[in-house]
């Protein structure tokens, strides 16, 4: 098999799209009919919702698998439903991998010692889909507890040819609150970035990028450019495109000259495109799947036009 | 019903013990016979392990419920097993609440906006056990993403009369890595502490302590004393006692004069006491339940002797 980065880069080049579709099912935004049809056969509301989420995500996977390299399920929306949601998260990940997609599980886990290792073993399947019950290719992790707490995640990732994305600069309006505090002349997130870049270097082998990547929000373009320069061996996962306000121009500096080095996420902007002003006139709610496809194609074209991703695949 | 802090303080005073028993099941340390007997009836190893974890945790709950106010399941060890582990986590929490215990779910979640709210809604049942599928009284959360990302957790906690513990100073050897960086003349964790104390103030009503607490490790006694002074309205959850090296003397400064204001966790030191040098001679592996009870009583006595908890219950 191949390392996470080799598998991811191959898929990005094959699809000519550095795009990850976020699977963030939300009850109140599901397309019409999905909840209603899921209700038959379930006495519990949360079980019916879980079934609706599964069908919704399966359909999205079928639509986007030919177009993009990766999907990113957001664990929170599944866990909100309890164990039946956790079961659906696992089944959605498996379905995506069977469809040939790379799966970035967005669970933002973080803990110490053998506890961190337990999370890593549970989520990081890496190259062997059967190596972990939630069989993700990579996982988002939180660095607050300290550099030593990243190591168990790294060890499992390397062993399983899986990947990690450590939170460095997040996309929320209040990210600056703690991440921008300045110590020793550098922002806090730059200290975290230095530790992540070191792990990326240590895990890259012959590749440009290592198994350890960074989450860097699209909503802070200057920080994105600064971090690309400071982290030449770190692959970026970039949330905040579209619904959160980040544009393709904002993201351009995150890529290397080959159009690699970063993967850009859109969640609501794609999966609930039928609800967006841009697609509302074009597609009726019943045509939500066509809206998903149109929004995905539009995002790929937008990145190809305004970022180095246009160079992908020659 | 009553707020989280009212319910917790009543339980601490009734048991005269500021002790929370950590439910951290680990396959390789389970008492003899548990895995073997769970294997019958399961074709999958992880399902058998989940059943063994459930039985183990249920037995511990039965032993400690008369002695301590609270238990703290560590989500990672359940999630490691996949969806069957998640199901057992939910059942363990329900069993503990039926036994009258306060449940602190140690899941260290953290995310932004509606995603943070989804985690909060999934875990924080608070005073109404049926309000959330994982029906915890309180949840540990990670502040890295910014103060704005704590607010959705706080809103759900207040609405459901539940509690939160925000990571401030963790107990791992490398905690200093990022938490001790100095900005504006203060350590990073002091900046987080200031935000948490404000939330504690805003959520305390007539009580001394608010719905928002802090995780502060027992392994850094000086920081514990410093934070108690800086956070007069913040309840402390203190890991690191026992197996990780923190002593009762190290923790003494975390309490107020009434013996309230903090709850101290022991996990391995209690649940796997039959494996500890101190109890090995006294109890055979088959007597692991007696070792759990002895270790729990010893910890309560130790805290009563060496901390203000001796004043509990008059």
From TrEMBL, chains A, B:
Q: Which family does it belong to?
A: Belongs to the OMP decarboxylase family. Type 2 subfamily.
Keyword Lyase present in the record's keywords: the answer is: yes
Q: EC?
A: 4.1.1.23
Its pathway, per UniProt, is:
Pyrimidine metabolism; UMP biosynthesis via de novo pathway; UMP from orotate: step 2/2
One BP annotation, GO: 'de novo' UMP biosynthetic process
Domain Orotidine 5'-phosphate decarboxylase: residue ranges: 18-283
**What is the name of this protein?**
Orotidine 5'-phosphate decarboxylase
Could you tell me which species this protein originates from?
Symmachiella macrocystis
Q: What reaction is this protein's catalytic activity?
A: orotidine 5'-phosphate + H(+) = UMP + CO2
């Amino acid at each position: 098999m191949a390392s996470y980065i080799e598998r991811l880069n191959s898929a990005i080049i094959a699809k000519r799209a550095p795009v990850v579709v976020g699977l963030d099912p939300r009850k109140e935004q599901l397309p019409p009919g999905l909840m209603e049809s899921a209700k038959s056969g379930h006495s519990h509301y949360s079980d019916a919702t879980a079934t609706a989420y599964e069908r919704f995500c399966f359909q999205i996977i079928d639509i986007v698998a030919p177009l993009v390299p990766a999907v990113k399920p957001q664990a929170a929306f599944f866990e909100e439903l309890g164990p039946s949601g956790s079961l659906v998260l696992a089944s959605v990940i498996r379905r995506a991998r069977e469809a040939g997609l790379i799966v970035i599980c967005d669970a933002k886990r973080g803990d110490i010692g053998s506890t961190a290792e337990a999370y890593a073993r549970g989520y990081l399947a890496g190259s062997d889909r059967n190596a972990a019950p939630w069989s993700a290719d990579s996982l988002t992790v939180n660095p607050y507890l300290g550099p030593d707490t990243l190591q168990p995640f790294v060890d499992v990732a390397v062993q399983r040819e899986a990947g990690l994305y450590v939170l460095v600069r997040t996309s929320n309006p209040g990210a600056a609150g703690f991440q921008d505090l300045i110590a020793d002349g550098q922002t806090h997130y730059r200290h975290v970035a230095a530790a992540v870049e070191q792990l990326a270097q240590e895990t890259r082998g012959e590749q440009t990028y290592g198994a350890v990547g960074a989450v860097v929000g699209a909503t802070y373009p200057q920080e994105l450019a600064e971090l690309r320069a400071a982290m030449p061996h770190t692959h970026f996962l970039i949330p905040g495109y579209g619904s959160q306000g980040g544009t393709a121009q904002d993201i351009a500096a995150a890529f290397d000259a080959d159009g690699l080095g970063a993967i850009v996420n859109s969640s609501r902007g794609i999966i609930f495109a039928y609800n967006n002003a841009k697609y509302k006139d074009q597609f009726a709610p019943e045509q939500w799947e066509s809206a998903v496809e149109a929004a995905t194609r539009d995002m790929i074209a937008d990145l190809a036009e305004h970022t180095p991703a246009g160079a992908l695949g020659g």
